[in-house]
Amino acid sequence: MKKEKVSSAVIRRLPRYYRHLSDLRLAGVERISSSALGRSMGLTASQIRQDLSCFGEFGQQGYGYNVNRLSEEIAGILGMNRGHTAIVLGVGNLGRALLENFPFERSGFTLAAAFDIDPAIAGRELCGVPVYHADRLEQYLAGHPTGIGVLTVPRSAANVTAARLARGGVKGIWNFTNIELNIAGLGTVVEDVHFADSLLSLSYMITEAL
Fold it and tell me: Who has the most CB within 10 Å: 54, 88, 131, 169?
């Protein structure tokens, strides 16, 4: 049974566990010990056992973890079997790239629609996804409960669009706009993606290594 509170550090390691276990499944590995899993992931066996214990008991002493079962359990914990839907707000370069290349379905999401203000794009389909004019957002959300809004609009439109999503009942926003959204109190969870932060962290590490 899941504990009442799980640290954000543990939550952010779960997708990594799932990805690694998926690779093991593809390689035909049926079971693995916490020590072997830790070595292959650069973690300690105790860290793995501690992380997984937040959600239940998945291993057997002397046997280790059944790779298929543990992968499925983590997928369930991550909500990959909940039938979540996602929409993309802003079909510029980044939004289009996500539509064309990001495997939403592998993460358990159905990419249902996209929205843009450009009349040359609205009314078309891109990669099988219908694109609507942004003016129709509220009307769409009223009839299509949506889990995630993928926010790739210009910075100037970010907060207004985020508030529209939150008021429309969208549960979470995947924010690529590179600004902090001001929608506190509207009940929508925000996950910020800052490409520059990752690059600058790498810059620090290579600088320190010189």
Answer: 88
Supply the DSSP symbol for 97: H
pLDDT tens across 115-149, in order? 999 999 999 999 999 999 999 999 999 999 999 99
Q: Where are the domains of the chain?
A: 3-77, 85-196
Half-sphere exposure of 98 (CA within 13 A, CB side): 22
Q: Is the separation of the CB atoms in 150 and 86 below 8 Å?
A: yes
Q: Which tokens sit at 92?
A: 């510029």
Check pLDDT > 50 for residue 1. no
User: Among candidates 89, 97, 95, which has minimal Cα distance to 157?
Assistant: 89
Mean model confidence pLDDT for the chain: 92
Global pTM? Answer: 0.87
Q: Where are the beta strands (DSSP E) in 55-171?
A: 59-60, 64-66, 84-89, 109-116, 125-126, 129-133, 148-151
- How many CB atoms are closer than 10 A to CB 174? 19
- Architecture of the CATH domain 85-196: 3-Layer(aba) Sandwich (3.40)
Top CATH class of 3-77 equals mainly alpha
Distances (CA, A) of 26 to 16, 63, 159: 16, 20, 42
